[in-house]
Design a protein that fits this description.
mainly alpha, about 40% helix, about 110 residues
Length: about 110
């Protein structure tokens, strides 16, 4: 019986070695192919940015009191106040769903 175990062990070792060597060969072929492609021109998704260096400023920008206000209108609230609802304004969002409630837990 010892010889059967040894044969099985040797067979398994031979298969594992063959798989390992096959993996090394595939890795080596892939590395050679990658190295060969390095000399080819690689396409880029966007062209490289060619910016000029910023011009130095002598002094910082002058700040003005008050400044410019944005001209866009202010955002409206999602729910108008009660007076506006009475006047006919519709809320931007549907009413929130009611909380689900269960019967109270009975104390023992």
């Amino acid at each position: 019986m010892a010889t059967d175990k040894q044969r099985s062990y040797r067979k398994d070792l031979l298969i594992a070695s063959a798989l390992f060597v096959g993996g090394l060969v595939i890795s080596g072929v892939s590395l050679v192919e990658i190295a060969a492609r390095q000399s080819e021109e690689v396409a880029q998704a966007t062209p490289p940015v060619q910016s000029s260096p910023p011009e130095p400023q002598a002094k910082p920008a002058e700040s003005k009191p008050g400044g410019e206000r944005p001209t866009t209108p202010a955002p409206e609230p999602a729910r108008p106040d009660p007076d506006a609802q009475k006047a006919g304004a519709q809320p931007a969002l549907p009413p929130a769903p009611a909380e689900k409630s269960a019967p109270p837990i009975q104390q023992k």
